[in-house]
Structure prediction request, 364 residues.
Amino acid sequence: MYVAVKGGERAIQNAHAWLAEERRGDTSVAELSVAQIREQLSLAVNRVMAEGSLYDPDLAALAIKQARGDLIEAIFLIRAYRTTLPRFGASAPVDTGNMACDRRISATFKDLPGGQVLGPTFDYTHRLLDFKLAADGETLEAPMREAEPGPVPHVTEFLNKEGLIEEAPQDETTPPDLTREPLEMPADRALRLQALTRADEGFTLSMAYSTQRGYARNHAFVGELRIGTVPVEMEIPELGFAIEIGKITLTECETVNQFKGSKTEPPQFTRGYGLVFGQTERKAISMALVDRALRWEELGEDNVGAPAQDAEFVLYHADNIQATGFLEHIKLPHYVDFQSELELVRKLRREVEASQNQHQEATE
Prediction:
């Protein structure tokens, strides 16, 4: 037994060394630096920060490098590191109305105060490989700002003035912290939004897509999508007021959804909401659609049996770290379990064969 344990340890050490060699790759090629990943693979960095629940571009870039580009593994590393950090307090809720927007668009209102700000987006690019990037690298031109950054009102407030959209729900109670307490059902909206903001982007996208295809009766418009920086403030008891402790980049999406009314609510538009670290607009839109689908009960709608309406199904399967752990554990040693099942199958086969032999003898 001692030899087997030592042999296993040696094999694991060799696997780690081999992993490091594969991560480095061809040593004749310059090593990829953390700064390069942070600056040039920023969308991957943003996803790792969002689903890892830790806003730190340098650490997210380091995790991506360590994980050889496997973003779920990088998210796992960030979450594990996050558990070692002390908690000094809680910041005040950020005011996205004071966001300095790099990108701000609406699919419902053409003429926005401050204009539509397209910002950095793939929306208008041709999906063709640019071989110049491989041959010569990028030639940068001076960027043209389409709008000066500054506070801008939320578009949905225009509808709110006419009473055509539901009032944004106000709840002053402190929501539970999903990073410190396990998810419990039933989950209120605040807890659901926490789970969705750190949920796997692919899973959330699939759930959102299902609602668009009719599995939830959820026809949505992007009321507003905005990306920009907001200040983070923290109350300092010794000072008696809040001070700015930093700035973070966020993506916020509000959807406007058709709603014919119910027994308790008049005909109006309803909201879906998404808020994610960094420039993560696909995730924010998906989150808003799934958020709206999960609100069927509070809005007095019928549950049509759509997957996106099932809070337990969505929230318990959205976390890619939990899913990865449960999935990948089956490749670890299960020798004892398998041997017991193997013996059971052999026993059942012997019993079947004995029964067949008895039947054959009886018929002869």
Summary: The longest strand covers residues 220-236.
